[in-house]
Design brief:
- The chain is α+β, with helices and mostly antiparallel strands and about 250 residues long.
- Helices cover about 30% and strands about 25% of the residues.
- The protein has one domain: Creatinase/methionine aminopeptidase superfamily (Creatine Amidinohydrolase), CATH 3.90.230.10.
- The strands form 4 sheets. The protein has a 5-stranded antiparallel β-sheet with strand order 7-6-8-13-14, sandwiched between helices. Strands 1, 2, 4 and 5 form a 4-stranded antiparallel β-sheet that branches. Strands 3-11-10 form a 3-stranded antiparallel β-sheet, with no helix packed on it.
- Helix 1 packs across helix 2.
- The longest helix has 24 residues.
């Protein structure tokens, strides 16, 4: 079942989303070669809690960290570690879920560590563009598949691949709600969007082929061929005439 939220509930998700946006900006300011992902995760937890929120990833189905931190070929659900240090030329993704007053916002950003190569610049730029390209399809009355198809077409036009096993989802009261939102698909397919749906739209694109593996920690999803990945995500509310971003621009 896909939840339909009231404007009051949507505004509560938006308040959680404000913390998300600030947390992304704060963590980005800390990025530099030599710091550990565990340090960044600890800072994320302290930041979210200092703003009245709860890190919604912590403990979700046993996930051990405050946020998901993924580096280079790690696509999503990376686990922070004390002995993993950022290096010049890495790219790092923060996937943050904040719970506030019972409502959850979810967003992701990918950042360079120092100067990165042209391939990684291309990947980050076009993954972010794919997100906003997909969002152009969002409004009440539109099939969900239109978003997926638009993201896939944009990605492939720019030489990037779309993993099929992972994608966006509904969000609001729970971390993952219906519907699942793949980043590939066909126009005209899928459920019809309705005003009041809250969706996390999140292109996760890779430079190489689309196939993925899961590491022995049972969480971290990586590219099968070791190629780089980027991830951008917003939580949005479906409106009659378009969409409203709930996690800041």
């Amino acid at each position: 079942m896909i939840n339909i939220y009231t404007n009051e509930e949507i505004n509560k998700v938006k308040e959680a989303g404000k913390i998300n946006k600030l947390a992304h900006e704060y963590l980005a300011s800390l990025i530099k070669p030599g710091i550990s992902t565990k340090y960044l995760d600890d800072e994320a937890g302290k930041f979210i809690e200092s703003h009245g929120g709860i890190p919604a990833s912590k403990g979700y189905e046993g996930y051990p960290c405050n946020i998901c931190i993924s580096i280079n070929d790690e696509i999503v659900h990376g686990i922070a570690k004390e002995d993993v240090f950022l290096k010049e030329g890495d790219i790092i993704t923060f996937d943050i879920m904040t719970k506030l007053d019972g409502y959850i916002a979810d967003s992701a950003t990918t950042w360079p560590v120092g100067k990165v190569n042209k391939e990684k610049e291309h990947l980050m730029y076009h993954t972010k563009k794919a997100l906003y390209t997909g969002l152009k399809e969002v409004k009440a009355g539109v099939p969900l598949g239109n978003i997926s198809a638009r993201i896939q077409q944009y990605a492939e036009k720019h030489g990037l691949s779309v993993p099929h096993e992972i994608g966006g989802h509904g969000v609001g009261k729970d971390v993952h709600e219906d519907p699942f939102i793949p980043n590939y698909g066909k126009y005209g397919e899928g459920v019809i969007l309705k005003s009041g749906m809250i969706l996390a739209i999140e292109p996760m694109l890779v430079v190489g082929d689309r196939h993925v593996d899961v590491l022995d920690d049972d969480w971290t999803i990586v590219t099968h061929d070791g190629s780089n990945s980027a991830h951008f995500e917003h939580t949005i509310a479906v409106r009659d005439d378009g969409y409203e971003i709930l996690t800041g621009e």
